[in-house]
Amino acid sequence: MYLKSLEIQGFKSFPDKISLTFDKGLTAVVGPNGSGKSNIGDSVRWVLGEQSTKTLRGNKMEDVIFSGTVARKPMGFAAVTLNIDNSDRSVADMGEEISVTRKLYRSGDSEYIINGKQCRLRDINELFMDTGLGRDGYSIIGQGRIAEIVGAKSSERRDIFEEAAGISKFRYKKLEAERKLSAAQENLLRLTDILSELEGRVEPLRIQSEKAKKFVKLAEKRKKLEISVWVSKLEEFRAKLAELDEKLLAGRNEYENIGNDIAREEQKIEDAYRKMQESTIKSDELRRKMIEEEQSASDMKSGIAVLENDIKHSTEAIETAQKNIDNAEASRNALIQDKKTAAEKLAALQEQKTALEAEIAETEKSFEQAESENSRLGDSVDKAGSEINSLYIKQSECRFNVEASKTVIKDETARLDELKNSGSDFAKKLEEYVSQKSADEAELEKNKSDSEAAANRLGGLQRLYTSRKESFEQAKGDFERVLYEIKGKQQRMKILGDLENNMEGFAGSVKMVLKASKQGRIGGIFGTVAQMIGVEPQYAVAIETALGGAMQNIIVENEEIAKRCIRFLKEQRGGRATFLPITSVKGYELREQGLENCEGFIANAARLVSYDPKFSGIIASLLGRIVIAEDIDSATLIAKRYGYKFRIVTLDGQVINAGGSFTGGSAQRSGGVITRKNELDTLKAEIEELSDERDDLREKAERMRAESEKLRFDMEAAREQLAQYSADKVRINAELSSLDSLIEQMSAQSDNSGKLLAESMHKIENAKKNIADSERQLGELAEQIRSAEETLAQGQGDREKLRQKRAEISEKLSQLRIRSIELVKDIQAQELEISRIDRGIEESKYGRHLYEEEIFRYREEISAKREEIEEISGKLSGLEGNKDKYNSEIRRYQTLHTEQTRLVNELQKGLKQINDAKEKLSAENTRLSARHDTVCTESDKIIAQLFESYELTRSEAMQIAEKIDDMITAQKELTEVRNKIRALGSVNVDAIEEYEEVAERYRFMSEQIADVQKSKTELEKIITGLTDEMCRIFSESFRIINSNFKEIFVELFGGGKAELILTDPENVLESGIEISVAPPGKVIKNLISLSGGEQSFIAIAIYFAILKLRPAPFCILDEIDAALDEVNVRKYAQYLKKFTDTTQFVLVTHRRSAMEEANVLYGVTMQEDGISKLLKMEQVDFQEDIADIQ
Q: Do strands 140-141 and 1114-1118 pair parallel, antiparallel, or not at all (unpaired)?
């Protein structure tokens, strides 16, 4: 058995899935501090079931999951899989390979898996128990833990020795056996207590059981006799009931036929009333439509008036826009005329310029001719003449410059004054335009806010109008609905009132007595039971059914009045009636314990009616022993519970009689006296309530109509105001557009005026400078000319004339050039004027376009509103033609209503005759029903006794009963049996069954105690055997480990002596283990005095001694050589080689000597912070790297 591979994912510093494969022999894991080497050992410890977070170097178990880095997200789980070769079957009942996996999720959920199947942590612990791989095993020695073998207390060293001895499994079995033994002892105590309690009950129950058996025999005989007697009586009653049922059936069939006739007549009356109501409803509907159409016509006329007003405002807006277009056109024509005049002036100036240019060219030509004549003079004269000519030309140019500059100064000064004046005008006009624009904008803003306010007000008025209109329609609809309901209920109340006044449903005899009482012929009569009580509607059917024919019983003052009424009926041959004197009729209410708590129980019938207290005896007599229940199921349960002792009536009129018989089916149409009375009271209250509601709705409808009319007028005023705001908005927008154009023009001219002003001032400065320079040059030139002319004065008479001529030409040429400059300036001024006029013409075109668009829009609105007026007018003409048609229909429905009223009167007369016949038949049926009820009551009493005594129904009793030939003998025998039962005294019938149960339980408990004692004895034997075996195995293993430790210590230390000592040899299983060592040449009294390296080497020697006794399949040793020097490391590594045939080693180390002894090396690095990487190196590669380093 050895470790094949280890797979890690998400565990501590290994987020990515890695796999380590291991060979037999030594595998070394190397790497710098903090690279994650020890996490490999922790992963193996964790997958084998380690639960201590301290051992795993964490605070909580979640810390084993990769927690992430700056560049890497945390993992959601950690998973480690350990693959072990089991081909040697070290672990029985498993395959050739064992795969153990443990997963932990960040949510806290965890999984344990063995060979792909889910398992428990306990299963993993038991799998590796006594293999050295267990939880307390020695296969994994963590970092810094090797020294704990030496530094721990003597009692704490036992775990590793017990695992090495192989007694962990025995200790586990012993603990299980002790736990079971403790449970068996507790169970034995409990069973013993129960058995003691049962022993005191068995004998008394046996005596009671024998007495009860005698009673059961006598009771069975009494039961048979009682049932036989009762069944014989029931047979007699059944024969009588059959005869009465035949008579009642015939009477009821006839009564039902008369009732059907009455129902048909009543249906005809109801149909006639319904047709009358329909006629009234349709007449009212037509009147409502007439009112609605009149209202609609009024609304349409108002709408037309609003639309015509809108058209008027739109037309006025078109006229205003057209006037603005005409004004703009006149302004445009004036500008076109100004442009034409300016163009003519420009053309004239250009002609003048052309003529002037021709004259200048001609003058220049004359000057050139004068120059040619001058060139014909002598050389000296020529030279002087040339010089003088040159001076004269310069003088001419200077004079031209002076004049030109003066002209410029004059022109520019005049232009400057003009610009200043025009600039002031521009600024003033611009200020006026801006002020006017601000005023218009303020007016436009006010118009906008006023328009929005008006629109909002109009919207609010429209919503209010719609709301009030809807409220009016709703109130009107509710008013009509309530009106129709009142009429329907009044008609129903009239029908019921007629029936009540005619005492419909009462027997003729009852009517006769009550009529005589009203006439004063008989005194002391209060009325019928139905007239003297009040019942809530939901209980009316139940109370009517409970009373039955007693509803027509007449309540009288005393017995004398009752006799007088009977004599009256007899004399008048008026039939029979029942009278209830309040002095003699007494009753009492049913009082059964727990009745109120029964499911479905409503109340005692007497408590559901209201009456005068003086009638309490009569009401108690009639209703005191009757219960009202919710339904037939609830009534059945109550009847069974109380043995069918009393009568139960359900809310829908079904009856369970005393004794167990059931009466029910559909409700009879012949009853309803109380229901009719309740319905009349209800209708009266509802009509009063509806009348109040009708008045409120009428008032509300009138109020809503007035409010909606006021809102409609307010809406028309708001629409007119909104239209005026729209017209003002158009006017203001047009003015603003014009002002924007003027302001833009004025701003441009003002800006241009400023530029021209600056240019003029600059030109004036330049001109003044040119004049100063030119005048200075003229003085110099005059002096030069005078000097030159004096030099040439001798023979130049001819030349003087030539000079004068040149001076004249030069002067003329200067004047012409000055005139040319003036013409250029005039042309530029005319071109600027034409440009200004063109801008004005374009602005006029744009303003005209805006006004034309506005006119087009208003004309479209006018066209649409005129179409809307035509449409509304068409609808209005259609509404005005409906009024005559509605009036005609109303008259037709009124005629139909009159005809139906006549028909109702005729039907009511025929109905009265049918009711008289019905009353006579009802009296006869009442008499038969009373006789039938008496027989049923007697029969029900016997049935109730059957159920109360023996819980038997009639059919079940008939099966048990025996035929009785002599009723007297049977009664005598029954009395004797009852006397014998009475002589037995009190009897506990349940003692028979209870005795059998207690006796059986006593036997069962005795057997249980014997079984528990047997189990206890067997467990004690098992514990003793396990303890002996554990002592034997541990003692033998400890002896071998001690011997191995002595040998290995001498080998590793090169001499000395060592020994392991039990602190309590008499108690091997609880004894601590002391370590006694003496390295060569030293005397050691306490292990603490040893160096850290010596303590580690001693612990390694103990570890080797254990491995020599019980080699673990594999061991992971995490830096246990850290405290050793290089010599001892080499000894330690070489000694490990001795165990590689039986144990596979994984060393986590920094020491070179240990690395050199390894077959395979795994390098662990942390190239990225917080993430460990793995590199595998074969020993050959490692040796080559070492050689390269050397």
A: parallel
Sheet holding 97-105, edge to edge: 18-21, 2-9, 77-85, 97-105, 110-114, 117-119
DSSP 968-1004: HHHHHHHHHHHHHHHHT-S--THHHHHHHHHHHHHHH
Terminal alpha carbon distance of the chain: 39
Is the Cβ–Cβ distance between 737 and 847 less than 8 Å?
yes
Structure tokens, 1006: 């005795």
Q: What is the dihedral of CA 1019, 1021, 1024, 1027, to 10 degrees?
A: -60
- The tokens describing 873, both together, are 């007018």
pLDDT classification of 671: cutoffs 50, 70, 90: very low
Task: Give the model's pLDDT for residue 80.
Answer: 94
Q: Which residue has the higher pLDDT, 794 or 586?
A: 586
H or E element, residue 1103: helix 1092-1109
d(CA 642, CA 627): 12
Report whether pLDDT(75) > 80.
yes
Q: What tokens were used for 827?
A: 């042309």
Rg from Cα positions in the chain: 68
Contact call for residues 763 and 418 (beta carbons, < 8 A) = no
DSSP letter (8 states) at residue 655: E
The pLDDT of residue 801 = 66
Q: How many CA atoms lie less than 13 Å away from 1026 in the CB half-sphere?
A: 19
Q: Of 1015, 974, 1151, 1140, which is closest to residue 22 (Cα–Cα)?
A: 1140
Distances (CA, A) of 972 to 224, 226, 232: 14, 11, 16
Across 414-423, 467-476, 1061-1070, least confident range: 414-423
pLDDT at 1109 over 60: yes
d(CA 579, CA 554): 5
Residue 499 tokens, joined: 């029936």
CA–chain centroid gap for 1003, Å, is 65
pLDDT of residue 1190: 38
Token pair listed for 760: 């003029």
Q: Coil, strand or helix: which one is 612?
A: coil
Reading the block at residue 650, the tokens are 């359900």
Per-residue pLDDT of 510-538, as tens digits, reads 888 888 888 888 888 998 998 889 888 88
Q: Where are the beta strands (DSSP E) in 46-115?
A: 77-85, 97-105, 110-114
Highest mean pLDDT among 476-485, 564-573, 736-745: 564-573
Tokens linked to 965: 């030939």
Long-range Cβ contacts of 193-199 (<8 Å, 24+ apart): 194/1005, 195/1002, 195/1005, 195/1006, 195/1009, 198/998, 198/1001, 198/1002, 198/1005, 199/1002
Angle between helices 168-374 and 158-165 (to 10 degrees): 110
pLDDT tens figures, 709-747? 787 778 777 777 777 777 677 667 766 766 676 676 666
Whether the Cβ atoms of residue 44 and residue 8 lie closer than 8 Å to each other: no
For 1151, which DSSP code?
-
pLDDT tops 70 at residue 217: yes
CA distance 16 to 18: 6
Q: Which of 144-158, 224-238, 522-536, 1044-1058 has the lowest mean pLDDT?
A: 144-158
Residue 794 CB neighbours (<10 A): 8
Q: Are 924 and 930 in contact (CB under 8 A)?
A: no
1091: helix, coil or strand? coil
How far apart CA 292 and CA 473 sit, in angstroms, is 10
Give percent of the chain above pLDDT 90. Answer: 6
Q: Whole-angstrom Cα distance, residue 698 to residue 477?
A: 10
- Report the run of H or E that residue 610 belongs to, with start and end: strand 609-610
The mean pLDDT of the chain is: 78
